Amino acid sequence: MSGRTVNVLLVEDNVIEQEAVRRAFKREHIGNPIITAVDGIEALALLRGGAGGAEALPRPYLILLDLNMPRMNGLEFLTELRADPELRDSIVFVLTTSRSDEDRVASYNLNVAGYIVKSDVGAGFVRLLGLLDHYWRIVEFP
Asked: Which end of the chain has fewer beta carbons closer than 10 Å to its terminal beta carbon, N or C?
């Protein structure tokens, strides 16, 4: 990956969940920058570069995506992301409370790298972070 820092885009509307992810990264000494969006609309603006001349989120990045959000939910966001020629190769892990088979199938049909149910992670969240840390250290990003 040529030593570049991987930015993490956390798309999560729950402030408590956002903070839990930040604390877990800190506890595990993972220093990757975490940028937060509260829904799919805000996440797309960050990825594309928002109004007012804001620059797009620099690559490489990895997206941690909740599915249940207001305005534009996770599946709507994924559909829009995969339709965008500039963003379709984005690496997305779903991190959600949804155990729905329909959500899981729809997510994988939209080429997510993984689907993680938050309640299943529990104490294993540390292992998840380890997986992500190794993932962006080993995998060659587009």
From this structure: C
